[in-house]
């Protein structure tokens, strides 16, 4: 896939998704790496009424090299929020990649001494005490991570204890960083809520999130990244899949903010291989099936994650913001599957060739 930087491009007769509705036909100016206002001297393209979406943000991915960033971009995912990439030298190399998806990362997550994650993460990731948690945060801060991630497991399943998880969150806050806690079972989810983390990623597959946990999340302003695609892919029975959608519906009902994330990965030993980029379109569809409106689903992959993770230069189409945008055919507010009808992609002002999307 090739990318090319456009000095200035004016997209005429385009309708913009503003976070709630579609605008009347207007002109969007791509001026180098940002969105501009002056179309003079621009190469003009007639969008013929196509829809411009802000570049999509996947709030839970795993990076495996520059090809991951390329693949994300080719499906209109211009930002990936990485939840486990190491060593720090690999992250440093990826930060130099241009023309494809931008990313933020937690680096190496904090895990307990047992459980699935201990089978493929290095021993450096293991925390057994609150002091270990504080040391882990200090090490990640020294590496320049963007937020901290921890893994919660149900008691007895090899994860960090509750005190260590709370210490992880407290230490991260002391360094000005937010925390994401993984929780894939009912009891682990309760531990994650108890930790005070800013974000809880996944939903349980062994039951539905407790109403008391939903209420506490809403009161505390905690944010959910359900990763429906991963959770349904990782289970074989219909009952577990039903738990996933019921939990997501409960999050909506409780007015907990929900972000679109897929757990995209090609990690050996992962419960389910989720394709990068393409899977976010499926995630949007499942969010709608779980009770979100199409506009809410689109916000969950644009404006909301940008705000929640402090990415003030993206998530919307406005002058001065990054030139991350996806041009599609069809009205995604009437049919969310229209996001698959990608005509053009710009990532930081670079034109990216769209990959074919399956319906």
Quick rundown:
With 359 residues, the chain is of the alpha/beta class. It has helices at 66-74, 88-94, 130-143, 162-174, 186-195, 211-220, 228-233, 238-253, 278-289, 294-300, 303-308, and strands at 3-5, 8-16, 26-31, 34-36, 43-46, 51-54, 56-61, 77-82, 102-105, 148-151, 179-182, 199-201, 223-225, 325-328, 342-347, 350-352. It is built from eleven helices and 16 strands.
If you had to describe this structure to a student in words, what would you say it looks like?
31% of the residues lie in helices and 20% in strands. The protein is α/β, with parallel strands linked by helices. Strands 1, 2, 3, 4, 5, 6, 14, 15 and 16 form a 9-stranded mixed sheet that branches. A 4-stranded parallel sheet has the order 10-11-12-13. β3 (26-31) and β4 (34-36) form a beta hairpin. α3 packs parallel to α4 (162-174). 50% of the residues are buried.
Give average pLDDT, whole number.
95
Strand content: 15-25%
Low-pLDDT windows of residues: 1-5
What helical percentage do the residues reach? Answer: 25-40%
Number of helical segments with 4 or more residues? 11
Number of DSSP-assigned strands: 16
Task: State the oligomer.
Answer: single chain
Structural class by SSE content:
alpha/beta
């Amino acid at each position: 896939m090739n990318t090319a930087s456009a000095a200035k491009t004016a997209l005429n007769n385009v309708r913009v998704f503003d976070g709630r509705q579609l605008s009347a036909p207007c002109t969007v100016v791509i001026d180098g790496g940002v969105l501009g206002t002056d179309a003079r001297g621009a190469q003009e393209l007639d969008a013929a009424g196509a829809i411009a979406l802000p570049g999509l943000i996947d709030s839970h991915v795993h990076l495996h090299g520059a090809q991951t960033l390329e693949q994300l971009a080719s499906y209109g995912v211009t930002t990936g929020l990485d939840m486990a990439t190491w060593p720090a030298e690999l992250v440093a190399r990826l930060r130099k990649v241009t023309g494809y998806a931008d990313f933020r990362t937690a680096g190496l997550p904090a895990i307990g001494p047992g459980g699935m994650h201990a089978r493929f993460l290095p021993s450096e990731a293991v925390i057994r005490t609150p002091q270990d948690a504080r040391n882990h945060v200090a090490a990640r801060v020294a590496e320049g991570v963007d937020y901290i991630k921890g893994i919660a497991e149900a008691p007895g399943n090899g994860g960090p204890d509750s005190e260590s998880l709370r210490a992880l969150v407290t230490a991260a806050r002391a360094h000005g960083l937010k925390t994401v806690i993984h929780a894939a079972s009912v009891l682990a989810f309760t531990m994650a809520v108890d930790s005070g983390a800013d974000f809880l990623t996944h939903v349980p597959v062994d039951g539905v999130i407790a109403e008391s946990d939903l209420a506490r999340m809403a009161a505390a302003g905690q944010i959910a990244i359900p990763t429906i695609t991963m959770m349904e892919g990782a289970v074989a029975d219909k009952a577990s899949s039903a738990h996933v959608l019921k939990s997501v519906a409960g999050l909506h009902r409780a007015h907990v903010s929900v972000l679109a994330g897929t757990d995209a990965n090609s990690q050996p030993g992962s419960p389910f291989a989720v394709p990068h980029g393409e899977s976010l379109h499926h995630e949007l569809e499942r969010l709608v099936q779980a009770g979100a409106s199409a506009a809410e689903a689109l916000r969950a992959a644009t404006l909301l994650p940008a705000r929640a993770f402090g990415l003030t230069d993206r998530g919307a189409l406005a002058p001065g913001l990054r030139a991350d945008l996806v041009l599609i055919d069809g009205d995604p507010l009437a049919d969310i599957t229209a996001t698959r009808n990608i005509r053009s992609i710009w990532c930081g002002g670079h034109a990216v060739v769209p990959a074919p999307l399956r319906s």
